[in-house]
Design brief:
- The chain has 86 residues and is mainly α.
- It has a domain of 49 residues.
- It is built from four helices and no strands.
- Helix 1 runs antiparallel to helix 2 and helix 2 packs antiparallel against helix 3.
- The protein is elongated and about 55 Å long.
- It starts with a helix and ends with a helix.
- The relative contact order is 0.11.
């Protein structure tokens, strides 16, 4: 069941949550039963870890109307933001 939840979280675009859930399951198995996760669950964790890029880079702050950027840069920024707001 843990593998299904990990897979669902990952496929829903929540890879960090999937990895956190694996860690919680691994700790619980170790503390309560003194065992490691099954080889299938470990293999799934390794695949998810390999495909997860890690923390994202910060997004630059929005450009204010009074900025010093050139007209083409301002037009591109405006077009980009309007595209996402529509």
């Amino acid at each position: 069941m843990a593998a299904q939840l990990l897979t669902a979280l990952y496929r829903c675009g929540l890879p960090a949550e999937a990895l956190l859930h694996y860690d919680a399951v691994r700790k619980r198995l170790a503390e309560d039963l003194g065992v490691d996760p099954a080889p299938e669950l470990l293999a799934l964790h390794q695949r998810l870890s390999a495909s997860h890029p890690g923390p994202r880079t910060p997004v630059p702050a929005p450009i204010s109307a009074g900025s010093t950027q050139s007209a083409p840069q301002a037009q591109t920024a405006s077009r980009f933001s309007n595209q996402w707001l529509a």
